[in-house]
Amino acid sequence: MSENKAKLSDSLKKNVTPKNFKKNPIKGTKFTIMVSSAKGGVGKSTFAINLTFALQKKGKKVGLLDADIHGPSLPKMIGLNDKPKTDGKFLFPLEKYGAQFMSLGFLVDEKTPMIWRGPMVISAIKTLTEKVAWKDLDYLVVDMPPGTGDTQLTFAQDVKIDGAIIVSTPQELALMDVQRGIQMFGKTKIKIVGLVDNMSFFESDDGKKHNIFGEGGVEKTAKEFKKNFLGKIPISTKLRESADLGLPLTYKEPDDKISKIFLEIADKVMQDVA
Ligand SMILES: Nc1ncnc2c1ncn2[C@@H]1O[C@H](COP(=O)(O)OP(=O)(O)O)[C@@H](O)[C@H]1O
Ligand SMILES: [Mg+2]
Is 145 in the pocket of ligand 1 (CB under 6 A)? Predict the structure, then answer.
């Protein structure tokens, strides 16, 4: 690692990724898919868990790693509060609905505020990337913290990521940050599978679409940066409620209109990362 570290600090000064930089794969999974967003609250976690079960519906063995250490939301979204078992060396993921899960939220008391300082952040991330005993996964989906700060950079530079998905709302402000995210992945040589437009529109009972947060911005940004556009997910009470109840929509109702959008995105992920 020390050789890597020297290369890394040199490259950060020059703002490029060094050649032959060794990234460690996460053990126990074939492919690692990172779900990221520029801002919090755009639906990244909701997207990540529904993509996980969409991939499961496609016959894949899946896991979800909640790496959003400042605001882990997985315990609530999957309705799990157990403490993961450990053999002193590794942490064993929790299992539910045939999928595997890990979150710092399982390890820390829910009421403890997640105030981490620099070195603690790095050791927490290392625990999540190196010390979890995933079992024979095809796809591990990683729910990243929002933004392009130190945590993301450390993660992106240390871990072998097979593809990244950027989730955004169509708002102008969110889009500016998306461009920053695209640039970060460029620097860390991570393949961007594509961009997703979440809370894209609201469909009223008369079938009319209302573009509450603006229209077409994410798709336009994707085109501008020559990235794939993966799809639009509408504002949906059902999607929100299912996440609040710990019963993800794509698991509970795979035939639902919105689940079908996730299944289509899962197809694209499987085509691109295989
Ligand atoms: N398409 C959507 N329709 C309705 N509510 C949504 C949608 N996507 C996310 N939400 C809700 O918005 C809130 C923030 O979503 P979350 O996934 O926690 O965002 P993030 O992980 O980006 O902070 C949650 O209450 C979630 O249920
Ligand atoms: Mg989240």
Answer: no
Is the residue at 99 inside a domain? yes
CA of 159 to the centre of ligand 2 (A): 20
**Number of domains into which the chain is organized:** 1
pLDDT tens-digit profile of 140-187? 999 998 887 777 888 888 899 999 999 999 887 667 788 888 988 888
Handedness of CA 44, 62, 76, 257 (dihedral sign): positive
Rg value, the chain, Cα = 18
Residue 13, in any domain of the structure: no
CA 43 to ligand 2 center in whole angstroms: 7
Residue nearest atom 15 in ligand 1 by C-alpha distance: 43
Q: Which residue matches tokens 């599978």?
A: 193
Whether the CB of 198 sits within 6 Å of ligand 1 = yes
| Residue 73 Cβ contacting ligand 1 at under 6 Å | yes
Q: What is the pLDDT of residues 175-205, one digit of tens each?
A: 778 888 898 888 888 999 999 999 988 888 8
Report yes or no on 18 lying in a domain.
no
pLDDT, tens digit (0-9, with 9 covering 90-100), for 45-65: 999 999 999 999 999 999 999
CATH label of the domain that carries residue 76: 3.40.50.300
On whether residue 249 sits in a domain, the answer given is yes
Domain with 185, as residue range(s), is 29-272
Among 250, 194, 228, 226, smallest CA distance to 78 is for: 250
